[in-house]
Amino acid sequence: MSDIYGFDAFAPKDISERVKNIGVAKAGLPWLSVLMLGVLAGAFIGLGGLYYVIVKSDPLLSFAASQLLGGLVFCLGLLLVVVAGAELFTGNNLLVMAWAERHITTKQLLKNWLLVCLGNFIGASALACLVFISGHTEMNQGLIGETYLKIGVIKCSMPLWQAFFKGILCNVLVCLAVWMAFAGRSVVDKAVAIVFPISAFVAAGFEHSIANMYFIPLAMLEKYAAGQGDATMQALSWAGFLHNLMPVILGNIIGGGVLVALVYHIIYRRKAVLAPGKE
């Protein structure tokens, strides 16, 4: 129980039970609700990305200050997902816990991931279009737009193996943030739990598949609007987008689904599978 830790929070074993129960509930939601909640989450993460780029576009900041402040403001995205309510693909990798305990089927797991990922893409890319049309990227004498271009080129040019491992590391931290948010009983608790892991993954330059669904489409819009066709921009395309997205998604699944959800399942929930009702 949480009281043995001396503070008002759920203990890790209690969190595992909550994650399992919420995973079952998520798998049972109607497909339209899942899709719409996925759209919201994609837009929410995109808003975190927008906030991040404002910081990154300031050339007066040192590298460390830029990375740290950018990571802190990016936390807006997951705060909105957790507190306002939405379905985020990377966070839903925790459904592996309910799957490992045989409370949901493989079909239900994959269906949820597919619908949520699709909804996330719609929300993130739609926000990218709205931000571009609004003229936001012209701020700071056009440095906002230039920053999106730089981010997009770097992501689309990244070697597959690097994108994969950065995806793993990213979602270990994201799912730990979500896991710890389940320990909290208040909005403040959840915010504190989220800020440090999320700011750490952003500051470290790890790869989040849903954030990239916002960054790369907006960078492509900037590229086409600017008419830039030089060699440095060639990677910034739909092919480059998929080149980044596929290994990052796979890495995110392993990071969150295996290294967080499955590991905690083995630690806290495995007995429930081996001997139901005799934990």
UniProtKB/TrEMBL annotation:
Subcellular location(s) of the protein: Membrane
Domain of life: Bacteria
Keyword Lyase belongs to the record: no
Gene3D superfamilies: Glycerol uptake facilitator protein
Molecular-function GO term, any one: formate transmembrane transporter activity
Keyword vocabulary terms for this entry: Membrane, Transmembrane, Transmembrane helix
UniProt membrane topology term: Multi-pass membrane protein
Membrane-spanning segments: 28-54, 60-89, 110-133, 163-182, 194-216, 245-268
UniProt keyword annotation of Ribosomal protein present: no
GO cellular component: plasma membrane
Family: Belongs to the FNT transporter (TC 1.A.16) family.
Name by which UniProt lists this protein: Formate/nitrite transporter family protein
Species in which this protein is naturally found: Thalassomonas actiniarum
